[in-house]
Amino acid sequence: MLSFILTLMKKLWGGRFTEKTEKVVESFTSSLAFDVRLWKYDIEGSVAHVKMLGKQKIIPQKDAVLILRGLEEIREDIQAGKFRFHDSLEDVHMNIEHALIRKTGPAGGKLHTARSRNDQVALDLRLYLRDEISEVLKLVKKFQKTIVSAAEKHVDTVMPGFTHFQKAQPVLLAHHLLAYFDMLERDRERFGDCLKRVNVLPLGSAALAGTTLPVDRRYVARLLKFPKMSENSMDAVSDRDFAVEFISASAMLMTHLSRFSEEMIIWNNDEFGFVGLPDAFTTGSSIMPQKKNPDVLELTRGKAGRVYGHLMSLLTVMKGLPLAYNRDMQEDKEPVFDTVDTVKACLDVLAEMMPKVRFNRNAMKKSAEGGFLTATDLAEYLVKRGMPFREAHRVTGEVVRYCIDNKKILGDLSAEEFSRFSDLIRGDVAHYLTVKASVEGKTSPGGTSGKTVLARIRQIKGQKAKGKRQEIKGKRREARGEG
To answer: In whole angstroms, what is the distance from residue 399 CA to residue 87 CA?
Structure first.
């Protein structure tokens, strides 16, 4: 026992060294300031590992029981805020093992049997990301729900659709909002797919070559609910593809949140007046009393760049590393952790804000009725009467030019004026050139007609109900121990 007390006064890996680590090196190499958030997963992985060691008789069962009891006490101490972390112990993993040895003596020194910090760190990060991806998916669904709710209320609200940031054709506000639902749905698919690569057990790979001890990796995988195990020990300890993939999916999500934020900022501007943002989600100016600034949306837009930077950072760290583990990979944690925090914060605040946004139906309608947003409808009117599209496009362009020269809009033209451009244009043309007719005529799958949009909303709600039923069934199977 005395020898273990003396060991505790040194690094847990210090047997080969004759000189004490310089303070500046301890400070430079320490990752405790950020990887401390992995403590729960470190204990979870250690519990599964020691259960396996005991089952396989790699360590005596009495030692396994003692270690498990010590780990549970450490868990309780950390939760209660009683645990003291030491910067000199480099990281969260060494702190927990150090505390365990203090509690259990020589038995605690057996925890690290058949394990390296290399596969231990890889495991902890995977466990952490597995949980966080599940949380991100819940928040994406929450935001999607607010979008669908807003769309349901605006299946008859017409607004201008834009291309090149120029008014293009009239669309339904509900259709515009559901475009973001579909973007977020792709994000959900990406995170779900990423989860497959995260959900792979690396533990048992040891430093890089595996171990000569009779470990049971399948048993550990079952305990930790990993459906797959890594197949190559060198790849397992040096793989951070899953972390890069997570940040990549997050960057794509932030692109969508940034685009949404930008449109809300533009629509909130007095020049548009399409939306009114809730006071509780805006701020004022320190000098201009009249200002109401969309800071939440601007920060979301700005934080997209932050996540892009994390993606480039981690790709750069990994790009030139030889196999297997290298200490450079300590730099994976902060980009991952900050990405998690950023994405969750943005999703949460937008989901809370969205139900309180007020959409100005009249301003949107008025904007959609100006200009020549139904010009394409005139061209398609001519196509339906047998004119080749390119000819119809030319004729419609001439009609628009005539309107501009005479300070008119399409709805102002008489049947006689229309007939100057083509004898295929009849007296009924005015009906097809109204904003309402233009929108309701877009019945092609995925189009903006009210009928099509309502069908899409029903489809979404039906899929959500089906997904909820499947989730409940899955939880019931899990409770019955059916996997």
So the answer is: 76
Per-residue pLDDT of 421-479, as tens digits, reads: 999 999 899 999 999 999 999 999 999 999 999 999 999 999 867 666 666 666 666 65
Q: What is the CATH number of domain 375-433?
A: 1.10.40.30
Extended strands (E) in 86-189? 158-163, 166-172
User: Active-site positions?
Assistant: 164, 285
DSSP 8-state secondary structure symbol assigned to residue 21: P
Query: CATH assignment of 2-113, given 3.40.640.10, 1.10.10.60, 3.40.50.150, 1.10.275.10?
Result: 1.10.275.10
Which residues, at least 6 apart from 62, have a Cβ–Cβ distance to it below 8 Å? 107
Say how far apart CA 48 and CA 410 lie, in whole Å: 73
Write the class of the CATH domain 118-365.
mainly alpha
The pLDDT of residue 22 is: 83
Query: Does 481 have pLDDT greater than 60?
Result: no
Residue 196 carries which side chain, given as an amino acid letter?
K
Same fold, 2-113 and 375-433: no
Q: CB of 318 within 8 A of CB of 242?
A: no
How is the chain split into domains, by residue range? 2-113, 118-365, 375-433
Instruction: Tell me the CA distances in angstroms from 176 to 19, 98, 273, 453, one per residue in order.
Output: 66, 56, 16, 10
> Which residues, other chains included, contact 424 with Cβ-Cβ below 8 Å and sequence gap of 6+?
382, 385, 386, 387
Residue 36 tokens read as 């401390």
d(CA 174, CA 444): 16
How far is residue 410's CA from residue 434's CA, in Å, rounded to a whole number?
Answer: 9
Residues pairing with 159 in the sheet: 171
Show Cβ contacts of residue 284 under 8 Å, excluding neighbours closer than 6 positions: 291, 292, 293
Q: pLDDT above 70 covers what percent of the chain? A: 92
State CA 105 to chain mean position distance: 44
Question: Does the predicted TM-score (pTM) go above 0.90?
Answer: yes
Within 13 A of 61's CA, how many CA atoms are on the CB side?
A: 2
What pLDDT band is residue 369 in, cutting at 50, 70 and 90? Answer: very high
Strands of 38-181, DSSP E: 158-163, 166-172
Question: For the chain, what is the mean pLDDT?
Answer: 93
